[in-house]
Amino acid sequence: VQLQASGGGFVQAGGSLRLSCTASGIQVSSNTMGWHRQAPGKQREFVARISSGGLINYADSVKGRFTISRDNAKNAVYLQMNSRKPEDTAVYYCASSPLWGQGTLVTVSS
What we know:
Elements: E1 2-6, E2 9-12, E3 17-24, E4 33-38, E5 45-50, E6 56-58, E7 66-71, E8 76-81, E9 90-96, E10 99-100, E11 104-109
Parallel strand pairs: 2-11
Antiparallel strand pairs: 1-3, 3-8, 4-5, 4-9, 5-6, 7-8, 9-10, 9-11
């Protein structure tokens, strides 16, 4: 059972980036899938989640800028990040409790 996050990188403020999370051993369509992030020197925090029924929640800090989606055929979950801010710099983790992926680093320059 594994979650593999990818798509991180360097982006300028205001730019866009899409993260991908590919699951193996579990079906994203049958589980609540989420994204969390941990900025340098800070605790890990919730970013977004999508339930098996399609219910979506976002942290207030990303609402209106980030979009979580799911592709059941590819067994993957995505996080589209627009209007990036320097404070979005963090390691982003894909998760489906109690399983965590390895994280992908996103750096936003001002």
